[in-house]
Amino acid sequence: MREARLRPEFADLYPTLTPGQWEPAARIAEVVLARFLLSQISEAPLQDRILDERHFEFRGETPDGTPRQPPGSRARDVASGAAEE
């Protein structure tokens, strides 16, 4: 299951979400999309992704279902089993 948590520095933009709390990304996307649609806060076109990666951290699967790489890791290191020292 993909999860997301709101970064504390963006808490004022999402008053109904608890910063730092991991939740299912689908639920957070529903909250963010509903807020956007109800308040019509922007005239800008909707992004491809509802959850702005600058505002949220993620863990679990990526949107396409593949496992997410841990921060600082590289796919070739993981694939080869080698870790850079």
Name its key features.
single chain, 85 residues, alpha+beta, 2 helices, 12% strand, globular
Walkthrough of the structure:
The protein has 85 residues and is of the alpha+beta class. It has one domain (3-80). It has two helices and three strands.
Poorly predicted tracts of residues: none
| Structure classification | alpha+beta
Question: How many discrete structural domains?
Answer: 1
Q: Percent range for helical residues?
A: 10-25%
Order of helices and strands: EEHEH
Topology:
Blueprint: E1 3-6, E2 23-24, H1 25-39, E3 56-59, H2 75-80
Antiparallel strand pairs: 1-2, 1-3
Concise synopsis of the structure shown:
The chain is an alpha+beta fold. It is built from two helices and three strands, in the order E-E-H-E-H.
